[in-house]
C-alpha cells in the first residue's frame, strides 16, 4: 500500500457523503421521530391538496385539523432532527478537546491537543455572529465556530469579527480581481499537508437593483414553500414593506385589467378588503418579534409575510387564467387552501428565528392567533371591474351606513311604504305575490339578483303591484327596507292580508350566503340580525296563513331547508344540497350560478317553476365542471297540492283555458 495519495472530490459527491453521514450520525430514536414527523406533515399537506384539487369546499374544522397536522409534523420532524444532531455532536471527542486561537499576520492559527491548522486571510470567506457564536466561514459549507464566551465581552467579539472581515477583504483585493482558490481550512496536522482548493469571492461587489429584485423573488418563493431564505434575507426595512404593500395592490388590479380591459372601472370599495392582510401581518410580526425577544426583527418578519402573500396571489391568479374565466375571483379549488397556507408559511419563518423553546412556540402561536381571520374571511379583492349600468354607478357613489341617524329613522317608513304598495289581486285569477329577500350586504351580486328577479316576475308572472324587495345593501338604505326576520314577517303578513289564500300563490326568493348549520346569512354591518334558519322560516310562513307557497333559497347548504319546509301546498327549490356549496357569489357578478340558470335561463323561457328547475340543472352542472367545482346538487320538492295549482297558473299565463284546481 502506498504511503501517499492525491485525490479530489466532486461537489456532488461531497454533498451525497454529507447527507449520508447526517442520516447515520443521529441516534436511531431521533431518526424515527423525524420520519414520523415528515409523514404527518406531508400527510396534512396531502389532505389539503386533495381537497383543493377536488374543488370541494370542506368544513373549516377539517381544514384546521389538516393544517394543524402539517404544522405538528413539521416541528416534530425538525425538533427530532435537530435534537438528534445535538446528541450526536455532543458525543464528539473532536469537539470536546480545548483549543487555542492565535491571531497571526498570515491568518488565524487554531491549536488543540491533537491538531494544528492555519487559516490564511485570503482563504477565509467571512466572519459573523449568530446567536452566541462567532461563525468563521471558510466557504459556503465549512465553518469554524468560536463561542462568544471566549472573548472578554460581546464588544470584543464584534471587534474581532470586524477585524477578520477587514483582513479578508484586504487579502482578497491583494490577490487580484475574480475568484481565487483557497486551501482547505479543515484541521490538519502540524506537518505540511496538501491543500484542497475551493472558490472564495475576491471582494464584496454591491448588487445591482436587478440582482436585488431577483434575490427578493427567490426569497419569496423559498419562504412560500417553507424553505429557509439565504442568510440575512429577506431584508428588513420599512421601505421594502411599503413597496411590497403597493405591489400587493397592483397585482389584483392588473388581474382585473386582464379580465375587464380598459373599459372597466376602479372598485375602491374593495381596497379595504384587498389590504386586510397588511395590518394583520404587521401585528403578527410585532407579536412574533416580542415572543422571540428580538424586536429589531419586526420589519424582516413583516416583509416575509408580504412576500408570501404576493407569491400566493400570483399563483392563484395564474391558476385562474389557465383554468378559464369565471365570475368568481377565486377558483373553488383554492377555497380554504390559500389562507391556511399563508399562515403556515409565515409561522414557520417566524419560528425559525429562534432555537426550539417556549419562545419558538410563542412565535408560532402569535402568528396563528392573529392571522387566523385570513383563513376563512371572504375578501373581495377585485379592484378593477367591468362597468355596470348607471344605476349601479350611482348606487356605489351614494352608499351610506345603516348606523347614521337619517337611515335609522327612515327605515320604518320605507318598510311601511313598501308594504302598502302591495295591492290585492283579482278575484277568479291566480295572482302571484313575490317577496325578494337579499340577505348579505357586503356583496352587490345579491342586490342585483333581487332587482333582476323582481323585474322578471313582473314581466313574466304579472307580479307588478304584488311584489316587495327586502335588501341588505348600503346603496339601497335610503330607498328600500332592509332584509331582516322582522321585515320578512311583516311582508308575509301583509301579503296574507290582501291575497286570496285559496287561489293566489306566494313566491319567496331568498339569496345570500349560507352556513353548514343551514343558517341563512343576514349581514349589514354594524347591525345584528336574528337568525333565519329552516325552522324559523317555517314558523313565519305558517303564522302568516299563506297556503300556496313557492320557496326558492339560493345559498350554500340551502338543501337543509327542503325537509323542514316540505308540505303538500309547497314547492321548495334550493341552489345546493344540504351538504354542498353553491357558487358564483362574487361581488362583480350579475347572477350567482343558480340564479342565472334558474331565473335568467329557466323562468325567462318557461312559466313552469318545475320545468325551470329541469332547465337549470344541466346548465349548473356544466358551469361548475368548467371551473372544476364540486357539484352543488340543487334540490326540489314538489307538494301534491301545489303541483296542479302551478300548472293552472302556467296555463293562465300562457293564455290556455284550464280550470283552476279545487282546494
UniProtKB/TrEMBL annotation:
It comes from Usitatibacter rugosus. Residues 104-163 form the YcxB-like C-terminal domain. One of its GO terms (molecular function) is peptidase activity. This is YcxB-like C-terminal domain-containing protein. InterPro entries: Peptidase_C13, YcxB-like_C. Pfam families: Peptidase_C13, YcxB. Keywords: Membrane, Transmembrane, Transmembrane helix. One of its GO terms (biological process) is proteolysis. The keyword Lyase does not apply. The keyword Amino-acid biosynthesis does not apply. The chain crosses the membrane at residues 32-51, 63-85, 240-262, 268-292, 301-323, 329-349, 361-378.
Amino acid at each position: 500500500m502506498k504511503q501517499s495519495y492525491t485525490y479530489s472530490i466532486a461537489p456532488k459527491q461531497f454533498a451525497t457523503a454529507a447527507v449520508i453521514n447526517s442520516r447515520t450520525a443521529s441516534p436511531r430514536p431521533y431518526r424515527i421521530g423525524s420520519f414520523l414527523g415528515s409523514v404527518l406533515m406531508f400527510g396534512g399537506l396531502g389532505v389539503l391538496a386533495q381537497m383543493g384539487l377536488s374543488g370541494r369546499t370542506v368544513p373549516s374544522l377539517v381544514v384546521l385539523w389538516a393544517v394543524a397536522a402539517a404544522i405538528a409534523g413539521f416541528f416534530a420532524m425538525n425538533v427530532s432532527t435537530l435534537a438528534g444532531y445535538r446528541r450526536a455532536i455532543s458525543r464528539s471527542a473532536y469537539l470536546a478537546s480545548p483549543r487555542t486561537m492565535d491571531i497571526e499576520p498570515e491568518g488565524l492559527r487554531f491549536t488543540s491537543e491533537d491538531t494544528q491548522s492555519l487559516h490564511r486571510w485570503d482563504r477565509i470567506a467571512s466572519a459573523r455572529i449568530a446567536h452566541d457564536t462567532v461563525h468563521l466561514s471558510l466557504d459556503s459549507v465549512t465553518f469554524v465556530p468560536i463561542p462568544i464566551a471566549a472573548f472578554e465581552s460581546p464588544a470584543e467579539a464584534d471587534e474581532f469579527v470586524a477585524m477578520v472581515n477587514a483582513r479578508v477583504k484586504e487579502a482578497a483585493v491583494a490577490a487580484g480581481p475574480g475568484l481565487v482558490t483557497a486551501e482547505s481550512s479543515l484541521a490538519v496536522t502540524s506537518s505540511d499537508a496538501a491543500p484542497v482548493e475551493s472558490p472564495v469571492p475576491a471582494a464584496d461587489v454591491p448588487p445591482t437593483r436587478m440582482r436585488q429584485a431577483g434575490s427578493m423573488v427567490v426569497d419569496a418563493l423559498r419562504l412560500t414553500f417553507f424553505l429557509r431564505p439565504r442568510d440575512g434575507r429577506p431584508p428588513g426595512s420599512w421601505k421594502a414593506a411599503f413597496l411590497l404593500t403597493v405591489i400587493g395592490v397592483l397585482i389584483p388590479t392588473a388581474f382585473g385589467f386582464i379580465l375587464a380591459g380598459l373599459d372597466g372601472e376602479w372598485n375602491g370599495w374593495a381596497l379595504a378588503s384587498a389590504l386586510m392582510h397588511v395590518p394583520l401581518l404587521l401585528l403578527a410580526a410585532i407579536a412574533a418579534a416580542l415572543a422571540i425577544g428580538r424586536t429589531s426583527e419586526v420589519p424582516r418578519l413583516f416583509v416575509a409575510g408580504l412576500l408570501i402573500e404576493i407569491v400566493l396571489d400570483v399563483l392563484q391568479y395564474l391558476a385562474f387564467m389557465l383554468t378559464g374565466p369565471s365570475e368568481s375571483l377565486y377558483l373553488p379549488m383554492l377555497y380554504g387552501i390559500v389562507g391556511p397556507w399563508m399562515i403556515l408559511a409565515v409561522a414557520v419563518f417566524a419560528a425559525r428565528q429562534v432555537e426550539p423553546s417556549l419562545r419558538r412556540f410563542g412565535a408560532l402561536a402569535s402568528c396563528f392567533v392573529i392571522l387566523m381571520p385570513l383563513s376563512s374571511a371572504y375578501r373581495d379583492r377585485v379592484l378593477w371591474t367591468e362597468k355596470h349600468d348607471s344605476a349601479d354607478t350611482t348606487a356605489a357613489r351614494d352608499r351610506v351606513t345603516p348606523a347614521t341617524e337619517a337611515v335609522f329613522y327612515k327605515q320604518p317608513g320605507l318598510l311601511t311604504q313598501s308594504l302598502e304598495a302591495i295591492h290585492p289581486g283579482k278575484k277568479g285569477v291566480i295572482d302571484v305575490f313575490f317577496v325578494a329577500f337579499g340577505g348579505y350586504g357586503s356583496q352587490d351580486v345579491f342586490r342585483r339578483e333581487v332587482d333582476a328577479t323582481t323585474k322578471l316576475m313582473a314581466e313574466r308572472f304579472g307580479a307588478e303591484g304584488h311584489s316587495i324587495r327586502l335588501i341588505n345593501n348600503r346603496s339601497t338604505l335610503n330607498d328600500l327596507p332592509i332584509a331582516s326576520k322582522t321585515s320578512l314577517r311583516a311582508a308575509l303578513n301583509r301579503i296574507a292580508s290582501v291575497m286570496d289564500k285559496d287561489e293566489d300563490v306566494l313566491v319567496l326568493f331568498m339569496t345570500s350566503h349560507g352556513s353548514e348549520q343551514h343558517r341563512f346569512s343576514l349581514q349589514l354591518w354594524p347591525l345584528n340580525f336574528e337568525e333565519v334558519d329552516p325552522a324559523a322560516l317555517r314558523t313565519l310562513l305558517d303564522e302568516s296563513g299563506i297556503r300556496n307557497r313557492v320557496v326558492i333559497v339560493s345559498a350554500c347548504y340551502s338543501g337543509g331547508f327542503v325537509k323542514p319546509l316540505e308540505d303538500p301546498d309547497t314547492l321548495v327549490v334550493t341552489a345546493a344540497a344540504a351538504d354542498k356549496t353553491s357558487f358564483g357569489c362574487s361581488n362583480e357578478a350579475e347572477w350567482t350560478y343558480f340564479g342565472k340558470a334558474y331565473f335568467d335561463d329557466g323562468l325567462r323561457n318557461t312559466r313552469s317553476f318545475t320545468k325551470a328547475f329541469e332547465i337549470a340543472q344541466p346548465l349548473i352542472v356544466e358551469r361548475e365542471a368548467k371551473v372544476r367545482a364540486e357539484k352543488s346538487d340543487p334540490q326540489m320538492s314538489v307538494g301534491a297540492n301545489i303541483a296542479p295549482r302551478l300548472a293552472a297558473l302556467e296555463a293562465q299565463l300562457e293564455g290556455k283555458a284550464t280550470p283552476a284546481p279545487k282546494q
